[in-house]
Amino acid sequence: MVKIAFNPALAQKALVKEPIVKDPELAAAPVGIAGSTGRCLVTLLGIAFILSGLIVGGACLYRYFTPKRLYHGTMQFSDMSTVGDAERQPYYLPRVEEEVEITDSMAVISVPPPRFRPGEPAYILHDFNRKLTAYLDLTLRTCFVIPLNTSVVLPPQDLIDLFSQLMSGSYRSYLVQEDLVVTERIDDIKPLGFYIRRLCAGKETYRMERRASLPDGGIQKRSAEECLTFHHFENKFVTETRICKA
Ligand SMILES: *[C@@H]1O[C@H](CO)[C@@H](O)[C@H](O)[C@H]1NC(C)=O
């Protein structure tokens, strides 16, 4: 008190000091607000992060799993190689039945074992993004991979249209033959993409080529070959795929 009385400067200092002393308390409030703003931001960022994770994850799941559409179709076909011989045309045309799952990026065809003719049950997968086709022989549990032939396999929307037509009745068509030759074993199936990896995981997997594209034209001793035959359709005609070990 005495000091304050005698030394107004000090008193003033004290007066000045007082707010300075108080300042931290006053400052404490803004610091608190800043702190909570910070926490708020971190929380918001966290929520944004989790949401973006959910959105990306959801998009992936959606792409890989959800918009599956299942179709069933039957095609009757006449074999062009016997067509000239009208009397030998069978009274009942052979038919191919299949179940297909179609998405924007792939189509999986389930070929049941044929009833009245030779052929193997199989899954045939067309990956439209990777531009690859894989045949999984269900008897041998072996996969065969070849580049997707876009002149044989209709794009997804056209496939859906075709199968929608087939749902309302059987379709008469013709047979196209395709000769494929096994070229090499694939040890690492990862580069073949998600779908083929899922289909062929744990199975022996081989690469194939069209016989016609082989250097020697593929004219070989066919009788000595082991071959598999698949009947399927992913267009307005039935394809008979023969896969042979060279
Ligand atoms: C696609 O298939 C057609 C009919 O079998 C054939 O003529 C053509 O050469 C094939 N194209 C490719 C790139 O393999």
TrEMBL record:
Primary location class: membrane
Alphabetical UniProt keywords: Cell membrane, Disulfide bond, Glycoprotein, Membrane, Signal-anchor, Transmembrane, Transmembrane helix
This protein's record includes keyword Ribonucleoprotein: no
Signal peptide: none
Membrane topology: Single-pass type II membrane protein
GO CC, one annotated term: extracellular exosome
Single GO BP term: negative regulation of amyloid precursor protein biosynthetic process
Residue ranges of the TM segments: 41-65
UniProt-recorded Gene Ontology molecular function terms: amyloid-beta binding
Protein name: Integral membrane protein 2
BRICHOS domain location: 116-208
InterPro entries the UniProt entry points to: BRICHOS_dom, ITM2
Compartment list: Membrane
